[in-house]
Design a protein that fits this description.
heterodimer; A: about 200 residues; alpha/beta; five-stranded parallel β-sheet; globular; B: about 70 residues; mainly alpha; elongated
């Protein structure tokens, strides 16, 4: 059975997307979700595809950001969306969420998906937070937009510090990613968004 | 057939709002699910401390070096 609080992230790993990625990861943690992504997967001989499929299957939800459609063409994100939709249709225990940055574009690039509006982050961090607040509801009230925005800003600054300490140009590495999630959990405890 | 069933991709969404009902994990559940090491937690603490220090340099200078506080008093 998948973990209801685990969210698989199928997003672009490019420099321009990094602030959005940090905001997405942080906001999910601030809302008590467990962000999971392929950065955690190391090759162990089982085959990367099998391990990606297992990771998606272990999550109750997946977020697919299809906002990068320019050159060079990237097939990984629509491919993993297909895996997640197949899983959802066959198991009924996996929810699929699609993000984009521009309205109506998905109607042209992925017409099979027509009838479902993607959430639009417009390549802005604040909009990313709004998308997640639009998407989720919980029994207890969720943290306010302004508190989430301030916390995400702190996390983006922390990401810069982490990269500097690790001598890394990016957070899209396993250790940097786990440190980023650790920083988000420390913010969440400090802000009392969820229990420690 | 696949198209007819595409709407079933979201079986747990609230039918009127389209929102997803979530349960919230604790911070320790999040760190354990990602197998975050003690070293990674410490690195995260240092990064957050540096961010706070950059915002509040005067206050944190005192905190980093308690002896300077005593020296100021005397």
């Amino acid at each position: 059975m998948p973990d209801a609080e685990s969210v698989f992230l199928n997003v672009p790993f490019d420099r321009g997307y990094e602030p959005l990625f940090v905001t997405l990861v942080g906001t999910l943690v601030f809302l008590g979700q467990k962000p999971r992504c392929v950065l955690e997967i190391q090759e162990t001989g089982q085959g990367r595809l099998t391990r990606i499929f297992q990771l998606v299957g272990s999550c109750g939800m997946s977020i697919h950001d299809l906002s990068r459609v320019g050159s060079p063409v990237r097939f990984n994100m629509p491919f993993e969306l297909g895996l997640a939709c197949g899983l959802s249709l066959s198991s009924g225990t996996h929810q699929v969420v699609v993000f984009d940055s521009k309205p109506y574009r998905l109607d042209k690039t992925l017409s099979d998906y027509k009838g479902r509006d993607p959430l639009l982050h417009k390549n802005r961090c604040a909009e990313m937070i709004s998308c997640l607040l639009d998407l989720f509801v919980a029994n207890d009230p969720l943290p306010s937009f302004s508190r989430l925005r301030n916390s995400a800003e702190v996390l983006r600054s922390a990401a810069r510090e982490l990269k500097q300490e690790m001598g890394s140009a990016t957070v899209f590495r396993a250790a940097a990613y786990r440190s980023l999630v650790a920083a988000a959990t420390q913010i969440v405890v400090r802000e009392n968004f969820i229990p420690p | 057939m696949a198209r007819a069933q595409l709407s079933d991709v979201f079986p747990h969404r609230m039918p009127t709002t389209g929102k997803i009902q979530i349960q919230r994990a604790s911070a320790s559940e999040i760190t354990s699910s990602l197998h975050i090491s003690a070293q990674e937690k410490k690195r995260a603490s240092r990064a957050l401390f540096a961010v706070t220090a950059a915002k509040e340099p005067k206050v944190l200078r005192g905190r980093q070096n308690p002896s300077s506080k005593a020296a100021n008093k005397s």
